[in-house]
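Mods, move this if it's the wrong board.
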Amino acid sequence: EAQLAMLAGFEARRILFTGVNVDNESLEAAAKAEPIVTFDSVSQMDRMAKIRRTLDIAIRVNPEVGAGLNAKTTTGHKGSKFGVPAGDIVPAFLRAKQLGFNVVGIHAHIGSGWLEPQPFFEAAKVVCALAKKVEKEARVKFEFVDLGGGFGVPYRPEEEELDVEAVAEGVAGVFNESFG
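Not the wrong board. Structure tokens:
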């Protein structure tokens, strides 16, 4: 997908390569293309360090807040295999710096297909608090905080549409409260 985005004219620096269970071949392709690489785990980051270290990176945190259309699409809950556990996030960023990566972001994704914004706001609060903690304890200055996506669409006539404007206002409120 990153390669397709670049073929479509997007600059590598504007592309976030975010994968789960990424194989070494995909890491090698990302290293050549040079998008911002989001690591889902410390082991994935360590594997990339053997390929290339001079990359802009982000790390996916598991905020222990999940939401989704069903259990299979809910990814941010405690115990989920996706992302670095919140309690391990500072050491993960310290490791990234030790490996020589240029840390630019923090990422989270709570799941896909959610129609209620409240869990998204809760996750945003957690991720913003963790970003501030990492900035202070690991001496990292983030260029971005990425909350992922997962916005749902109604599949049945009786389902309400997600109020995207309310989501935008709520997230802006969280960011203003956290960083404003």
